[in-house]
Amino acid sequence: MTLKKIVKKLCDFPKGVLAADEGIGTIKKRFDMIDVENTQENRTEYRKLLFSTPNLEDYISGVITYSETFDQILDDNSRLIDLLLEKNILVGIKLDSGLSDTPDNQKLCNPTENLDEKIKYYVENGASFAKWRALFIISDNTPTKENIEKNAEILADYALKCTQNGLVPIVEPEILLKGNFDSNKIKEVSSFVLKIVFEKLRDCGVDMEEIILKPSFVRQGLDIQVDPQVTAKDTIQNFKSVLPENLGGIAFISGGIKDSEAIETLKLLNKYKDDFNFTVLSSYSFGRALQTRCLQSWKGSVLNLNSAQKKLIEVLSFFK
Ligand code: 13P
Fold first, then answer.
1. Local confidence band at 128 (pLDDT 50, 70, 90 cut-offs)
2. Is 214 a catalytic residue?
C-alpha cells in the first residue's frame, strides 16, 4: 500500500485509530485505577482483549502499539499483532522515547537511538505507520518559541525518516489541556505551535500528503465545561488558517476530555467541515476516550473479557 493510501485508510472517519501504545509508566497509571498489577502478563492479556474484540475492524482501521506489544509472542507462538493484521487492521508503532523536563518546566522529546534501523525493522515486520509525541504546556510564559522549535525539529526529522523508509508518520504536537486557560489562549498557542511544526516539516522537505497530524482539540482548559459545538468550530477555524491544504489527514487525541464529549466534538467537526470549506480528512487516534470504560469493565479478570470487549464496541459505535 502506498503511504497516501495508508493515510486515507487511517483517517477514514467514522473509522479511526486506537492508541494502545501506552509505555510501561502510562499503562501503570491506567492499571492503578482498576487495581491491576502492571506485569508483562497483564499488559499482554489486556492488549489481547482489545485486539481480539469481535468486529473491531468495523470501527478501527489502525492500532498504535508499544514496542513490547509489537514484539509480543503468544503461547501458541503467534504474534500478538497478528490478531490485528488478520483483520486487515493496520499496525502502528510508537517511535518516540518519551520526554524530558527542561529547567523552565517544559518538555523536550528524548532522542531515539538508531531510528533508521528501528524504522526498517518495524516495516519488515508488518508496521504501516508510526507515532511520535511532543508535549507543550500552557502557562503565562510557556510554551516558548525556542522550545517549540526544538521539538518541531525533532518531529520533522522523524517524519522525514519515516516517509523515506515506508512508514506513515503520525506527528503529535500535543498541547496539554489540563488547567483553566480560556479560548483565546488555546487558539493563540495552538496556532503558534502548528505554524512552527509545519515550517520545520516543510524545511525538511516532508511530503504533507504522506503524514498525519495528531493534534489536541482547540478547547479551553479541562477545568472549564465547554459545548462541543464551540470546540468543533474553534478547531476548524484555527486549523484552516494554519494547516496546509494538502495535509494527508488529522487524527485527534482525546487529551483527557471525557469520552462522550471527545466523540461528540469530532462528529460535529466532521459535520461542520463543509460549511467552513475545510477539506482535510479528520478522524481520531484516541487512547483514554476509547479505553476507559473497557478497562473499568475488565478489572484484570478473564471472567470480564466479554463484557469489557462489549464496552469497547459500545464506545466505538457512538461514532456512527
Ligand atoms: P489520549 O489518551 O489523550 O487520547 O492520547 C492518545 C495518545 O496516543 C497520546 O499520545
1. very high
2. yes
Quick check: 80 and 44 in contact, CB under 8 A? Answer: yes
Nearest CA to ligand 1 atom 5: 287
Residue type at 156? Answer: A
Q: Which of 174, 286, 319 to mutate to test the pocket of ligand 1 (most atoms within 8 A of CB)?
A: 286
pTM confidence score: 0.98
Vertex 249: Cα angle to 318 and 171 (nearest 5): 105
Residues with C-beta less than 6 Å from any ligand 1 atom: 19, 133, 172, 253-256, 285-289
What is the rounded CA–CA span in Å between residue 240 and residue 74? 45
Distance, in Å, from the CA atom of 144 to the CA atom of 150, rounded to the nearest integer, reads: 10
pLDDT tens digits, residue range 237-272?
999 999 999 999 999 999 999 999 999 999 999 999
* DSSP H stretches of helix in 205-280: 228-242, 259-272
**pLDDT band with cut points at 50, 70 and 90 for residue 48:** very high
Q: Evaluate whether 218 touches 265 at the Cβ level (below 8 Å).
A: no
CA torsion angle 280 285 288 293 (round to 10) = 100
Other C-beta atoms lying within 10 Å of the C-beta of residue 150 = 17
| CA 25 to ligand 1 center in whole angstroms | 14
Asked if the 3-317 domain carries CATH number 3.20.20.70, the reply is: yes
Q: State the Cα–Cα distance between residues 3 and 164, nearest whole angstrom.
A: 10
Per-domain residue ranges of the chain? 3-317
Kindly report, residue by residue over 269-297, the tens digit of the pLDDT. 999 999 999 999 999 999 999 999 999 99
Q: Cβ–Cβ contacts within 10 Å for residue 101, how many?
A: 9
- Measure 254 CA to ligand 1 centroid, in angstroms: 6
